[in-house]
Amino acid sequence: MSLVGFSTHTFDALDQLILDYKFRYLQQEDPNNKIVLVSIDEKSLSYFNKNGMYWPWPREFYQVATEYFTNSGAQLTVFDILFDTPDFNRNNISGSASDRRFANTLANAQNGILAFKSTPSADSITSALHEYPNIKSYSIAGQPPYRQPHLLNSRPITPFGQAAKALGNTVLQPDSDGLIRSVHLFDSLAHKGSVPTLSMAAYLATKSDSVEIKWTDDGLRVDNIEIPLLENGDYLINWYKKGGVQNGTFPYYSFHAVVQSAIQKKRNPQADVPVPPEVFEGKIVLVGASAAGLGDIKSTPMSSLEAFPGMEIQATILNNLIGQNFVTQWPTIVKIIILLLLSLGIPFLIAYSRPLNGAISMVGILSIILGAGIAFFAYERIWLSTGMYIVVSVLTYSGGAAYKYFAEEKRKQEIKSAFGQYVQPEFVKQLMDQPELLTLGGHEKRLTVLFSDLAGFTTISESKPPKELVKFLNEYLGAMTNIIFDNAGTVDKYIGDAVMAFWGAPIAQDNHAELACRSALQMIEKVDQLTPQDTPTHARFGIATGNMIVGNIGSFNRFNYTVLGDNVNLAARLEAANKTFNTKAMIAEPTYQQIKDQFLCRQLDLLVVKGKTEPVKVYELMAEKTSENDLTSLKEATEIYNRAMEYYLNRQWNQAIKHFSDVFDILPEDGPSQTYIERCEEFKNTPPPDDWNGVFHLKTK
């Protein structure tokens, strides 16, 4: 059937609500109205009461009205009234004569459609008693969508049934919430076959007797017209704009006004009457009750606008059929594609967007679904199951968002676990908020790396019991780590008393060289505060800047966030090279070029470190130029040292020795000056080769 998967009995609450509101507020004008309603209303009841005629009225009233409709050129007269009992005698009026006159009028007109009622039955055998030849049944080809038999509950008396052109079932089964949204166009009357509902009987009466009817996969085919049905075989009613007596879709005329007009026209064909004959010419006239006391007011999705009499529901269905104004739906394959797009696209959207962007996009998707549903329904009466799409979208988004939330929380915990001991808490928080800053696996990046070692640690370890040694080491490493964190660095690892750290990753820093050098000077000062006064202990630092590999390096189940490369090895060699010059912090040329404006430095040497062939110019990191300490003496000593270096490089050994010695007046234990004095003395005895350019080959690591 078309509208596969949707039934008015199984619509969820959201789909029902959306469908009802669409009918209510996306109202469609009746494009081909051929139906006129004649209402047994309060005015008619009151009018006849005043004239001594009480409900139920004599059948002569219907005879007069039917003659008037037929003489006016009405195509059909459909009675949504059960004439299931004979009329009774009234003052001067014979009930049987009244019935006979109405039956004769129906027989002469041959356009009357009368109503009967049936009820669903679980047992079809007991219904044999209710076979009724006047009810026309249809042999419908194909597999019917429902098989529940019905028992005949009430029917027109035999003279009326024989005189009518056709009979139709008036049963309207509401949904579980009491609203009528759909109907069976045919019911299976036990031992009788398929019998039509009242509106379908009227519609078939407009067709030829040889009409072909067939159940199909898409619904019900009447000749070449395909009527879409719900999965359970119900026809979904396409409601028009506001119904009811006042300015509704179908024109209403009071029954008493029709009777008055008929009587006046009989007496004087030229008389002006309340309801002129041309009102009914070529129309289908549907007679029924709209008075509240007669109990034929139904609840529909349109009831909030105005009360809906049962006859107007029949008129709506009949007009749907005549004008082929059906609610249709896209093919099943299209619905499946939409569901797949939503089910796959929304998780993709969540996975590759920030939460706010994802939420905004989700609102956009829901707006598109609602907008498309409104547009297709308003202009083409195509029913998109927006309720299902919204539910699927919301559930998919909620599930995807929840999964992403827990996955991200897990990833954040992994990041916190992996980096919490290496970088400052603010960096960890930033990494958790922006995990895309962290590229797992190695990649090349320009960074600054620092190696430190505690000179004289062996002496300390020999002088302290194990517990005190561990306490001192924890205090020392904790202090070094805090300084690194304070300067936005990443601790790579601890190797005994040695510390390795780097700057510029995992979060980019333009001033990574400056931060590393500042950390080294602060760590030197802190070590002096921590180490015992009676031990010759100090920290040595090697710092190098350049390209290196950074990332999570290791095996599948055990890895570290670390740095690798020549510049990392260089920093380690520079840390050890401090022994040669008796210095505390040595930096390579690229680092110096980055920090020379912020820090006081002096050139130490042109070194070829162990394992390398190319020389590297190295400097001693002495102090930060903005330091609160008085740097006058240090600057003066540096100027003398630099002049001594010029003499040294020019092979003027005696002049170099003199100036290096002058440095001792300011810095009595200056290690680099002492080293160069020793070299000058050696070169005086054994001069370097003619192509010597000041390069010194470091023999140890």
Structure write-up:
With 701 residues, the chain is of the alpha/beta class. Helix content is 42%, strand content 20%. Strands 1, 2, 3, 4, 5, 7, 8, 13 and 14 form a nine-stranded mixed sheet that branches. Strand 9 and strand 10 (219-222) form a beta hairpin. Helix 3 (59-71) packs across helix 7, helix 11 (386-419) runs antiparallel to helix 12 (425-433) and helix 18 runs antiparallel to helix 19 (653-663). The protein is rod-shaped and about 155 Å long.
Query: What characteristic shape results from the CA principal axes?
Result: rod-shaped
Number of helices: 20
Radius of gyration over all CA atoms, rounded: 50 Å
Query: What proportion of the residues is helical, as a percent range?
Result: 40-55%
The residue ranges in which pLDDT falls below 50 over 5 or more consecutive positions are: 1-11, 124-130
> What is the distance, rounded to the nearest whole angstrom, between the alpha carbons of the first and last residues?
85 Å
Secondary structure tally: strands: 25
| Assembly category | single chain
Instruction: Specify the structural class.
Output: alpha/beta
| Share in β-strands | 15-25%
Average of per-residue pLDDT values: 85
Q: Can you summarize the main beta sheet? A: 9 strands, mixed
